[in-house]
């Protein structure tokens, strides 16, 4: 089998400028996400400190579900729901 020489890639000025722009955008997004995380942690610790842990009757799981927008809907444990509609 013949071995080929490696291909040489040449970057143009436009390529380097585009790379720098994308890199800056990613850094800005990362900073914003870190700031949101820090604010979120501070807010959560304030909620726990102010409410005394479970003073408002909500569990940690419920607070997290509200924060992320998850609304669980439990299914009823009745016989028709477990076995379907079996009509004889």
From TrEMBL:
Pfam (any one): ANAPC_CDC26
Protein's cellular compartments: Nucleus
Mention any one GO cellular component term assigned to this protein in its UniProt record: anaphase-promoting complex
Q: List the pathway annotation.
A: Protein modification; protein ubiquitination
Major localization class: nucleus
Q: Give the family, as the similarity comment puts it.
A: Belongs to the CDC26 family.
* PANTHER family the record matches: ANAPHASE-PROMOTING COMPLEX SUBUNIT CDC26
State what protein this is by name: Anaphase-promoting complex subunit CDC26
> Which species is listed as the source?
Hucho hucho
Task: Tell me the organism's taxonomic lineage.
Answer: Eukaryota, Metazoa, Chordata, Craniata, Vertebrata
